[in-house]
Every structure is written in structure tokens, then in C-alpha cells.
Amino acid sequence: MTDNKETVRKLITNGGKTPLCFLHSFGCRQNVSDGEKILGLLCDIGYGVTEDITAADLIIYNTCAVREGAELKVYSLVGNLKNLKKKKPELIIGLCGCMAQQEKTVEKIKKSYPYVDIVFGTFALEKLPELLYKVLIERKQAVDIGEYSTEFPEDIRPVRTDRLNASVPIMYGCNNFCSYCIVPYVRGRERSRRPEAVIAEVKELADSGCKEIMLLGQNVNSYGNTLDEKINFSELLRRINDIDGDFRVRFMSSHPKDATKELIDTIIDCDKICKHLHLPLQSGSDRILAAMNRKYTAEKYMETVNYARSRIPDFSFSTDIIIGFPNETAEDFADTMKIVRQVKYDNIFSFIYSKRTGTRAAGMEDLTSDEEKKARMKELLEVQREISSGNFKRFIGRTLTVLFDSDDGDGIFSGKSDEFIIVRAEADSSVIGTVRKVRITKSFNWALQGEII
Ligand code: SAH
Ligand code: SF4
Ligand code: F3S
């Protein structure tokens, strides 16, 4: 392989010029993190990185398969590349990530998008240099969706696209098989990284000035289950909290079936951990939760929320909700709305159910109409808008800790508070990349405004 890597390096840098790659990751933070590893591999063989797609010698779309909409978007973008490839026959086009891990995608690309040069799935990430070799030497489409293995690419150094706010995967894959979800099929079984590897990465990021670290896993609450060492997620959080440095820590996602009091206590006790929990509800109906294979009830979910609120009365929660799971009735939806009103989330990410081939729910008959689903979504969004605007008022007069990362124009800058709420303030560009205390003076239904002290 090393020889092939050298050959690829020679071929792409022919004439001494640095070839450029453009990579875009869709989907979740885990996928964005994989994209950073792919950039690491590419830079290692001699590519430079560009954000201008027309200047690129290699274009890679790192795709998501979680809903049909995500897939359609990629097909449309790949379709648009046909003309670019005509003008620039040397251009190499690659498709990778969760969508590319599926046989049906490989078939479709072979049949309808023959100008795509490389297709590689999440199991074959580290094979990219080998695939480039095939394309450059043999000049034909190279496909590898890999054999599932329990290994993961521990030795690839990511090229981080955001140094302020970095992602650190603590585990890969998922064992939960929620009946609607494609993730376990395209990411394989759950496996945890060793705590020493996670801690070394966090230390290095903290030392290099990173201010926020997001720990990633499809269910961080089962961290450690595949390790010989006896360690759970709360213990990992405590060890990370003990690392010296001026940074804060978030994590996602946390499965309600495995959320414990110990986890809530750890969040509250550790000063570097943000006091916010993203706890995906999906549905408030026990009947639908069972059909979804979520393994908790609305009551168990509320126990976690109530425990957190017994320790911090306005503890911040956000959630994911699926509307229109097969045969969700008006009553089931009312159960979801009941929980939404009880919890008073600071933020909700809601999705209309999308049938995913190969999952258990794909075989379920569904009699609920699209109109009904859209009406439920509208109702959820309206109620949540009211809840957020009511919720956010509680911060007026309080001082929040904000990591500024965005210039909104007209002298207004914004960032996220520990509670994961957008906070805006008048400032100058020196505020970007710094953590500031902000006294809140005004609230909207989507953000807060205040003065930096
Ligand atoms: N592992 C994470 C979520 C991964 S997918 C967790 O369990 O929370 C992110 C979100 O997409 C899910 O929480 C769910 O709300 C949504 N989702 C997953 N599959 C979906 C589907 N088939 N249709 C609609 N939404 C879906
Ligand atoms: Fe999908 Fe469920 Fe796994 Fe999350 S926990 S990735 S929703 S199967
Ligand atoms: Fe993430 Fe989408 Fe894959 S949500 S794990 S990129 S299917």
C-alpha cells in the first residue's frame, strides 16, 4: 500500500503542482468528523484543500442516508457535476459515507452516474488512497463498500475544519436498531474507543486552543460496553473534566433508555460539562415507542427529566421528534405534545418519518395521510415556538457564558451559551473565538440578546 500511496502522490502532483480537493459532508457530526479524517488522508498523499468546487481536482460528497430528502439532495448535486466533468475530464468525483455504504446506492451510481469515479462506504474509509490508485492507474470506476470489521481508523489524523469547536468520536456504530433507523446498517455494530485515546485527543485539542469539544456517539450512554476495562460514560466525562485547560464539553446523542441519575449528577458536578442534555424523545406515545423499539416509556423518560429538574429547576433539554411514524394516531400525537408541553424544551429538531429500505418499520403498513402528518408538524412547531419564547424569558437579567463564533453583520456577533442557546451581542471582531460573560437583556423565540461584561 505504501508503494501505491507513493505512486498516487507522484501522479497527482505531476509537474510539482499541489492538486486540490473539495469535500462536503452531509448529515450528523459523526459524518462531519469522518470527513475530517478523509481530508487527513488526502492531505497525507499530497492534496491541498479548497472550498471552491470549480477549482477542485477531486470532489468528494460524504453523504447521509437518514431520510430520503438527504439522499435526493446528493443525487441532484452529483447530477450537476456531469457538466463540470465534461469540461474537465481529469476531475475525479467520489461519493462516500452512509448512503454510499448501501448496495442500492452502488447499483444506482453504476447505472445512472457512470462519471462518478469512486464510491466508498463508511467501512472502507481508510481505503481511499487505494481507490485513488485504481482510478488513476486503471482509469475505471472504483467501488469499495468494505467488509464490516470491528476496527476503526484510530491512526488517521483529521484535518479539522473548525478549530474552536472540535468533534471527538468516543464510539462508532450503533446496536439499538430503532425500527425506523438506517444508521446501524450503514455504520455497523457499536464499538468504543479506548479512554486513553479519547483523553489524548481532548488534551491535544485543549492545548491547541480549542474552546469547545463535542463528544460523539450514536448512544454515548453505552460507552465502554465493548471495552475490557470497566468504564462507563459518566466515568469518561469525569476523566475529561479533570484535563487542564479552558474548554467546555458537550456530547451527543444520549439514548433515554440508558440515561441515568449518575449521568445527570456528573453533568451537574463537572464544571467543564455544559448544563444541557439533548435527549431524543422521538415520540411520547408508549405504543409508538414500543413499535420504534426504543425500549423506554414516556414515564421513564420523564423520570430522567424530573430528576435533572429536581437538581437544577430550569435544566436545559433539547430533543428529536419523529412525526408520522407508521400508523401514529391523533391520540399518539397528543401524547407527544403532552411531553413537549411538560418538558418545555429549549429546542426541538422535528422530522417527518421517512421510510428507509431495509429497516423493520419499512415493512409496516401506514394509513396516516401526508396531509395529517404535515398538520401535526405545523402544530408541533407552533407550540414549540411559544414554549421557546416563554422559556427564553427566564434568562433576562441573568449572565450566561457564551463562546462567540459568528459575525452576524452590523456590529452584532453571536455564539452559543452553555445551555446551547444562540446569544447575540454588540461587539467587534476580536470577540470571535473567545468565551465571554453576557448579561441577557432581551429574548426572542429563537435566541437571546445581551451585553458583554
Ligand atoms: N443516534 C441518535 C440519532 C441519529 S439520527 C439518537 O438515537 O438520538 C438523528 C435523528 O434523525 C433521530 O434522532 C431521529 O429523530 C431522526 N431519524 C432517524 N431516522 C429517521 C427516519 N427514518 N425518518 C425520520 N427521521 C429519522
Ligand atoms: Fe438510529 Fe436508534 Fe441507533 Fe440512534 S440509537 S442511531 S436512532 S438506531
Ligand atoms: Fe449520520 Fe446520516 Fe449517517 S445522520 S450516521 S450521516 S445516516
Q: What can you tell me about this protein's structure?
A:
The protein is built from 13 helices and 19 strands. It is of the alpha/beta class. The protein is globular and about 65 Å long. The protein has four domains: 2-144, Rossmann fold; 162-273, Transcription Regulator spoIIAA (2-Layer Sandwich), CATH 3.30.750.210; 275-393, 2-Layer Sandwich (Transcription Regulator spoIIAA); 396-452, Nucleic acid-binding proteins (OB fold (Dihydrolipoamide Acetyltransferase, E2P)). It binds S-adenosyl-L-homocysteine, iron/sulfur cluster and FE3-S4 cluster (F3S). FE3-S4 cluster binds next to α2 and α6.
As a whole number of angstroms, the C-alpha radius of gyration is 23 Å
Q: Strand order of the main beta sheet, please?
A: 2-1-3-4-5-6
Tell me which ligands are bound.
S-adenosyl-L-homocysteine, iron/sulfur cluster, FE3-S4 cluster
Cα(first) to Cα(last) distance is 56 Å
Please count the beta strands (DSSP E, at least 2 residues each): 19
CATH superfamily of the largest domain: Methylthiotransferase, N-terminal domain
Work out the helicity level.
25-40%
The helix/strand class is: alpha/beta
Tally of distinct domains: 4
List keywords for this structure.
single chain; alpha/beta; Rossmann fold; Transcription Regulator spoIIAA; 4 domains; six-stranded parallel β-sheet; 13 helices; 22% strand; binds iron/sulfur cluster
Brief characterization of the structure:
The chain has 453 residues and is an alpha/beta fold. Helices cover 36% and strands 22% of the residues. The protein contains 13 helices and 19 strands.
